[in-house]
Amino acid sequence: MNPESAIETEVAPPAGLNHPSPKAVLRELHGVPVNGLNDSYLYKVDAAEFSRLDLHNAMFSASLGGLFPAPAREDIQQALMICNDGPIPAVLDIGTGSGAWCIDMAKAFPNSHVVGMDLVPVKASSVPPSNCHFEVGNADTDLAKMYAPESFNLIHVRSVVQGVKDLHSLFQNVWRMLRPGGVFLAMDGRLTTWDEERQEILYKEEGQPGFSWFRKMIYHMLEVTKVSTPNCFLVPVAPFNIRIQARNPSADLMHRITECLRGMGDDVWEKVDRFNLYLPVGNFDSPIMSPGERLGGKLFTENMSRLPDSIRPMLLSGDLTPEEIDRLTSGLREELKEPRIKQFSLFIYTWSVKK
């Protein structure tokens, strides 16, 4: 099959909605199916990937001890309180993946209506409760068409910025869709690593002391997705010293969501706050880790061992050959079992409350 040929499948509109669900389009890229709506998010679409996304959700739930960071719980619970004279609380998960977070939220808040939106139809590993459903859409192009103003009390975005080209539009749409007092909860990672003193570990080439296969994988992910980045609401952004391909102008801003939201103006959010989560890269222990971080780290290690298969279409869209990807995968998996250095990944949670 031609790598760019499309496989189209119809998605029935969920009951009770006043808009049609877009047609789901898959295409084949380098011999595997990927979404056909977005050329920045080049992950596989298959059963193995949905299973990895379930693991991705479990890793964060274990690390946080719940569905969101403890410092944000009061704001979120307040936003989802039922008012006698108000609409039913509603939750939107943009880039829902396997739908696991949505299903967990629907069970935890049975009096709320939970919607998960993704680029492809969700293949959930468990039956969603009646207050949860899924839709197909592109966060870059479909939010304004799919959702009316002040429709949601909580909007959740996790690990999707690399697939969003226009963060300014995304954040404006989120603000538009939130009800007054509603919460926007966003999480994305910093694509580098840190030592036990929380100092950034410099990237090293293969053969140099401190070389890491994990960092090499991140290097190639950035090489494929990143371009020179415009400022986000006048936030200065330092360029990466790597060769780049013009695929996503927002890739540099994955770790700057807090600054971007604060930069929207004083009359937009009641508050903007941040929580940092560090997870170990590989099977090692450290006295600075909490029990939740230790458990989350084990799940993170398993997740990372599967990631090279998930992003193979992305890596092949760069300069790597299949043989080089196989070597990278093998090196990463060995490193995760027996790490040469202790390094941590940083995941940044930002939440804001609409005025």
TrEMBL record:
Pfam families: Methyltransf_31. This is Methyltransferase domain-containing protein. SUPFAM superfamilies: S-adenosyl-L-methionine-dependent methyltransferases. Residues 91-190 form the Methyltransferase domain. InterPro entries: Methyltranfer_dom (IPR025714), SAM-dependent_MTases_sf (IPR029063). It comes from the Eukaryota. PANTHER family: 2-METHOXY-6-POLYPRENYL-1,4-BENZOQUINOL METHYLASE, MITOCHONDRIAL, METHYLTRANSFERASE. Gene3D superfamilies: Vaccinia Virus protein VP39.
